[in-house]
Amino acid sequence: MDLTIKYFCASFFLAYIIVAFVWPTLRTWKRTGVKPITFGNSDSAHDYIGRVFTGLLGLIAAVIIIYWHGDFYDFLLPARYIEIFHIQMLGIAICAISFLWTVIAQSQMGDAWTIGIDEAKSTELVVKGLFGVSRNPIFLGMILTLIGFFFLMPNAITLLVMVTGYFMIQIQIRLEEDFLLKQHGDLYVDYKLRTRRLL
């Protein structure tokens, strides 16, 4: 079972990075000619969140690598009492659902997709499909993924990543809501009234 979790975590992480970030970036860049990654190096809240997200992804990668080397994993303070078969199976299920959910949401967002906020780019307000039940389905998928990883590898670092990631996503959502309100006005106000922030 331990080896199964190791292989799943490593393969899922790589697949999620490719599907949720790399492929949409290349696809949108090719179609529009506009680089969809908008996080920069300034001292703004927006760019700071981008750096935190990058760090969290790095921590997850480090945990997966350490998890493969059992002698070092104890330094991450694993919660052995929840590192059990049923909890880890729940983690796999959550990750699988979040992966499918994210792929669908990415597809439905189309060329409006960006990583961060591009104030120079005017995009269509997507309100159909998964965006008809959640204003932020991709962020919801990311939250579920963090929860899934914690259930798969419950330790102090994955707990830190899950909690920090959740709050960073909540802040980013509110920054994007302010931007969308400025860009779409009453259309976005009506969308907010009809559709919940997450689910």
Structural account:
It is a single chain. The mean pLDDT is 90. The chain is 69% helix and 0% strand. The longest helix is centred in the first third of the chain and has 31 residues, at 2-32. Helix 5 packs antiparallel against helix 6. By secondary structure, the chain is mainly α. It has a single domain, classed as Four Helix Bundle (Hemerythrin (Met), subunit A), CATH 1.20.120.1630. It has helices at 2-32, 45-67, 70-73, 85-109, 137-152, 156-184, 186-194.
Short summary:
This protein is mainly alpha-helical.
Task: Give the SSE layout.
Blueprint (H helix, E strand, L loop, with lengths): L1 H31 L12 H23 L2 H4 L11 H25 L27 H16 L3 H29 L1 H9 L5
Helix pairs in contact: 1-2, 1-4, 2-6, 4-5, 5-6, 6-7
Query: CATH topology, which one?
Result: Four Helix Bundle (Hemerythrin (Met), subunit A)
- Overall mean confidence score, pLDDT: 90
**Helix content bin:** 55-70%
Element-by-element helix/strand order: HHHHHHH
Query: CATH architecture, please?
Result: Up-down Bundle
Q: How many structural domains does the protein architecture include?
A: 1
How many strand units?
Answer: 0
Distance N to C terminus: 33 Å
Report the major sheet: none
Which CATH class? Mainly Alpha
Total DSSP helices = 7
Secondary structure category: mainly alpha
Uncertain stretches: none
Shape: elongated
Q: Strand fraction band?
A: under 5%
Question: What is the CA-based Rg, rounded?
Answer: 18 Å
